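Wed. Picked up where I left off yesterday with Sodium/bile acid cotransporter. The coffee machine is broken again, so keeping this brief.
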Amino acid sequence: MRLLERMRKEWFMIGIVLAIAGAKLEPSIGVNGGPLKPEITVSYIAVATIFFNSGLSLKTEELTSALVHIKLHLFIQIFTLAFFPATIWLFLQLLSITPINEWLLKGLQTVGCMPPPVSSAVILTKAVGGNEAAAIFNSAFGSFLGIVITPMLLLLFLGSSSSVPFTSIFSQLFMTVVVPLIIGQIVRRYIKDWLERKKPPFGAISSSVLLMIIYTTFCDTFSNPNIDLDKFSLILILFIIFSIQLSFMLLTFLFSTRNNSGFTPADTVAIIFCSTHKSLTLGIPMLKIVFAGHEHLSLISVPLLIYHPVQILLGSVLVPTIKSWMVSRQKKPLQTREVLAALE
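Structure written out below (tokens, as returned):
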């Protein structure tokens, strides 16, 4: 019974493994021109479905109360979309002299360029008892920013503009990302009450479509005999991702708890998760568009596929520790006020 419950909770991670295994067994089904016709069903229909779904589920009407905390939002967005990718780029200059597969290293750079996720950072912030409104705002706002900034960062750091026309990328992004997102938000305004009452499984729908994208991406890999992924590189990338995640969580903690930072302990919790988490749901479709037809697309996608479960795992493990820290910090000002009141 416990095993079944565990499998139900981890169905998406199991789905990723099965999708990759299925692509390995029969790659001809999901390759371009194959029975699934991914050049149409994935590149346009699946990606548009994910972002229409995001438009329906984003509760932007609840974010107005969080707008006033501009310093907090600036910190998270600058860290996520500027400091994070720039630091990864500098780090990769050192790693480029190692024997690690170069396409996996490029994949690490794509992780740095991704926007924050719509769900995991919010869920973990709420679990700790942090500033949930700020987490919701920055996840939603970061997703909107990422639609424009992430492709530009990918082109800047990876230079794929030499093989993919810049205007073509942004026209496809506009049609499959921006337009469905806006339509989703418009539709939401008219059926908001029904959505609140029925609570459709938005996360499960997006995740299911995402599995199809992952499957077809790896079908392209396994159908290409020239691609070889060595286990040594994969193990090193796994270790590097764990190190990056922990280092950035510690860094955001140190930055946001300085005496003159102006952030509350609850703000710090939102900062830790929102600044360091990266979106798989938005990331994979964007990679599919920006690197359309690239023979190493699946290798570039691997670090993001690893980073996603790592951020959830580390976050979940650290929830009790961060929660006890936040509670102890919140008690101190309360105790000080009580002492002052007693003296008066």
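Quick read: The first helix runs from residue 2 to 9.
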